[in-house]
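--- STAGE predict ---
source: upstream dedup step, 1 unique chain passed
mode: sequence only
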Amino acid sequence: MAAAVKAAQCATCGADFPSRTKLFRHLNESGHGATGKDASADTSHAGGDASYDHADGTGGRNCNSNEPQLLAKGNEAYCEYYRRQRICNTNEEWSDAYDRLRRPLPISYRIHESSPLSVFAAELLALVGKRSGDEQSIFRKWSFGTEDDASIPMLRMTVTNRFHRRSKNRDDVSSILHALQELGAVHRQELVSAIPPLVLWAASNRKECHNDAPIIADMCAAPGSKSLQLLDLLCMHSGSKQIPSGLLVANDSDRHRIVTLCQRTRHVPRAPLLAINTDARYFPGIRRKCHLNKDGKEEGAFNIREKAGYKQKYDAVLCDVPCSGDGTTRNNNQVWKDWSTGHAMSLHKLQRKILQRGMELLRPGGILVYSTCSLNPLENEAVVASVIGDVGGVASMELVPLPGLAG
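--- STAGE serialize ---
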């Protein structure tokens, strides 16, 4: 009879595990730093560090440390490619950024500001952060511009490394967050995901392009975090009105994902939402329908300037296009194994067509924000530069400076 083969062993405590899945679960729960001998090949990285290390360099010996663990996964080609692209000013800056890319991403929740429970949710999350005893459980206010400018909304989020992980109050915290989400008071959303809608809103509310009833298109909306934020901004913009003014057209090419988006909006005011399911490259035009008032004059549902029967143009367009996602390594370790420059090159044509269609939808003076989850210039600067060149250069499209971020 053949002897049983040990699948993996924890190098810190010597415990044996029948599978690598159970080993990794043990490492995550206990904080032990080294993986089993059979897992070493998959967890090595460009620098050749220990296979699972802490940010403080203790190699996992200090299991009670509050420092986020440094995942010793990486990709030598990835590191060298972006070093040569000079996306950072110096090699030292890139080395620091590369280390951060291998750390776990903190869990964050956004306060739904138009909810009547927003103040209560903010105070409760701040209290929970103090009770957890975690120095990284913090409550921050993020905003664009200054607090004196009421036209620029404030973004409030709570960020923590311990929620849903090794907190002693795990059950209590999870229950509180789940209840707040069901009430529509908070939404799980990464901080970087909240930046494009805020930039779009702040830029489109400038005096020269302000509209009391903005028409917004989210061309690649699913799974819906950015659309929920835009709905929140529309509701805040409308003030005390029972039905918010304006319109948000949310689109995605995947039917199941757009259904998920609609389900996520069930606990928030969604009167301004129109969800459609189509390829963003062929985003459909919308024709304006007007009614006549008692004086025989046209009366638009959204106070739109175009004539009846004309295609509706948008005040703001968000193009969060499909991408390689190589900037999401902190919450998707599979990127380290699957990354290649070929993936980014294969998406370049698709991204250009979506951006071109987004520009066609804009009214004169409208604002478009283009964003990806990638660091690759082929998916960012190269796409924007080529499309602007195709539509007539800077004479027809103006690059708007980003509003300042204060928080």
